[in-house]
Amino acid sequence: MIKIRIGGWAGQGTVRAGTILGRSLSIEQGYHVVQQRSYSAAVRSGIAYSDVIADKKELDELVIDTPNYLLVMYQNTLDEWEDTAKKVDVLIVDSSRVENVPEIPGKIYEVPAGKIAEDIGTAKAANVVLLGSLARVSEKIDIDMLKKTVREEFPEKYTELNIEALEKGFEEVSDRE
Amino acid sequence: MKEKGEYFMEGNIACAEGALKAGCGFYAGYPITPASEVMNHLSEELPKVGGRFIQMEDELGSMASIVGASWTGLKSMTATSGPGFSLMQENLGYAVMTETPCVVVNVQRAGPSTGQATKPGTGDVMQARFGSQGDYELIALSPNSVQEMFDFTVRAFNLAERYRTPVVLLADAGVGHMREKVKIREDVKTVKRRRPEEGEREFFDTDREDHVPPMPNFGEGEELLVTGSTHLGDGTRDTSSFEAQDNLVRRLVDKIEDNREDIEDWEEHHAEDSDLVVVSYGSMSRPARGAVRKARKEGHNVGFFRPKVIWPSPEKRLKKIGENSKVLLAELSLRGYRMEVERSVPSENLHIFDRLNSLPTVDKIYDNIKEVL
């Protein structure tokens, strides 16, 4: 079972990222997948996150207690989740918006996703950059299937930008290994 | 409307797609978290298949207009959550009394009152059954997956048409806001209300065994009287006689009660021969089923029971289960289904796992199972 949480400030596309990841794992890779989203009752602002659980077997686990992979896009979200972060296997942060990362036993990947996304066209694609990095870190997530999903999920005019975002995120992590 | 195929889809969207496949021709609603996606999706898709969509001023109007639309011959529906469901109760009773087929989706959230709008809960189970005044029965379905959000919406329309009654799809935010793979079929079986045959003049009474009278449409030249007051078979009001009240209200109740065999549906695993049976429904029944599976793997003799149709409640089956084994009711509420289970299971056999605000993990329920065993 793989358990992934993607969190940040409302509007950063954490739920969108979870949907792309979930769809890719489910439709393209054949996993049983459950994706949940959580957001505050405010019209704007607040922490928003998305949980993706994937398994080869039929899935009745609908929520995540401790994720294996935690992706964080905003400083206050990480501050809020410090206890959780200490229990995860892998923490990936958007270092453009997260500067203070606590010491944890798990592995930390600091990816300047916001900056990378801005360089290729729009900071809005930071969520997709992080998905690219996740695909590099986790062998179970297939980057080619993510690309296929992105092609189907986004309107055509944004496809290439998002494919590039995936690739840059993927390369960014491999550079460090 | 989606073509046949497999999709990674949110529960509320699957519900809307189910409505389209079932032949929904009219939607009226007022947006509310966590049900708005049903409305949002139908506002785009319903007009494309020739249906009508209207955003009403509130939930009173939404419920009223789906009743009216149904009498024009269209399959009609609304979707809401707790606060809106409360506002719909008066006209829901009107739909029961006038035997108007319609589907009311309640994607339950944590209440009471405004509660926690984005969080799941199942505190409306009793309201779905007893929310409007007077004696009545209705049908409520309890989905626990995105696939069932699709399938049960189709079934809700079919039951509404078959029995000329409002049907409640009693979902919760746990399934409404969840995404999973869903299989959309082309060959969805649909049912349409029985129409009057030549010379048939009674639209509010019948000698038929199923207690379901035929239903004409407004504007077809019939002398059609539709009223929430007690009425005779031809629709005329009778607000004083014993016979009119007794005949009508008994038939409305019998219409559901005597057709239980056709309506009832549940899922069970080892419910006959276990030391403990976990009873659960809605999104909570997923981790509950996972916990039962884990317990059996660990060698514990545990079974599982889940009503898919929660009203009418499978009381005989629950009674039978409660006679032979301990029961652990797992629900996302303190009072949701509890009294109904207490009625069927002896108190010394009944244990409760209740939880508010969010779904538990499989392990949380598994730990509770071990405590009760």
- Total count of helical runs of at least 4 residues of chain B: 13
Report the oligomer.
Answer: heterodimer
Rounded to the nearest angstrom, the radius of gyration of chain A is: 15 Å
Number of domains of chain A: 1
Identify the strand order in the major beta sheet of chain A: 2-3-1-4-5-6
The pLDDT mean of chain B sits at: 97
CATH classification class of the largest domain in chain B? Alpha Beta
E-strand count of chain B: 15
Number of H- or I-type helical stretches of chain A: 7
Please state the overall shape of chain A, judged from the principal axes of the Cα atoms: globular
**Shape type of chain B:** globular
Overview of the structural elements:
By secondary structure, chain A is α/β, with parallel strands linked by helices. Chain A has helices at 14-28, 75-80, 82-85, 113-120, 126-137, 143-153, 156-174; strands at residues 2-9, 32-38, 47-55, 69-72, 90-94, 107-111. Chain A has a six-stranded mixed beta sheet. Chain A is globular. Chain B has 373 residues and is of the alpha/beta class. Chain B folds into two domains: 5-184, 3-Layer(aba) Sandwich (Rossmann fold), CATH 3.40.50.970; 267-372, Rossmann fold. Chain B contains 13 helices and 15 strands. In chain B, the strands form three sheets. In chain B, strands 2, 3, 4, 5, 6, 7, 8 and 13 form an eight-stranded mixed beta sheet that branches. A five-stranded mixed beta sheet of chain B has the order 10-12-11-14-15, sandwiched between helices. The interface between A and B is medium-sized, with 21 and 25 residues.
